Amino acid sequence: MDTRPMVAMAAALVLSGSTAQAQETNVDVALVLAGDASGSMDQQEREMQRQGFAATFRHPDMLSIIVSGAYGKVAVTYVEWAGPAEQWVTVPWAIISDRASAEAFAAALTAAPEVEGTHTSVSMGLLFAAAQFRSSPVTALRQTIDISGNGPNSAGPPVATARDFVLAMGITINGLTFTAGSVADAGPYGYLTERDDLDLDRYYEDCVIGGAGAFAMHAGEVGDLIAVIRRKVALEIAGLPAVAEYAEFPLRREKTVDCSAKQ
Prior knowledge:
This protein is an alpha/beta fold. The chain has nine helices and six strands. The radius of gyration is 17 Å and the shape is globular.
C-alpha cells in the first residue's frame, strides 16, 4: 500500500497552521527539540527530559560552542508530542547568543506548564517539528530536529514515510532514545519495564533519523540523561557527527527493524 498520500495529507494539516516570518537574523543552526510527552512517559521522565535540556543550555561549555560558530548564535525551540493530534509548542523560538539568552530559554523550559498525551505518534511529532521551521525568525545554515522518545510509532501515519517527507525538506533528524522506565526506575529491577521484542535504538536508526550527519544516542540510567543530552546538543550545534557512537556501534547498511512495528 502506498502510504505517501496519507503522510502528505497529515503534513498539510500540520504545515497549514504555520506562517513564515521575515527572515532577518542569520544563525548557525535552527534546532527544534522535540520531547516525548506520550502516555508511556511518566511524570518524572517528562520532567527529567525538560531538566536535561535546560541544564544543557545553562552549562558554560555550551555557550562556548554556540559563540564559536560562524555567526555565534543559534535559534532553538522546544516542542512536545504524543498522539496524532497532541503536539505543543512548549517554548517558542529563541535566539541564543550569550549567557542571558541561554538562561532565559532554560528558565522558560523549566517553568512551562506540564503537558501529557496518550499515544506515541513519532510520525506526527516529526511533521509538527518540521512545521516549526516555517515560523522561524531566522536564516539558518542548518536545520535540525532533535527528537526524544521511549517507544515506537503507535498511531498516525507510518513513521518512515513521515521521516522521508521531512528529509526531503533538507532537515536533519537526530534521535535520543530511552527505554520506558529505565530513566525513572533506575535500579536492579528497571529492566522489567523494558520491551524485549523491539530494539528501540535500532528502530530509531532504521526508521526515524536521517539527513546529513544524522545520529542517535541512548540514555539509560538516571545519572546518564543530562550528560547524554548535553553531548548530543553540543554535537548538533557544532555540526559534528557522533563519531564515537559509530565507532562503537557501526552504521548498519541493511534495515533490520520493521518500521511499522507498534507498541
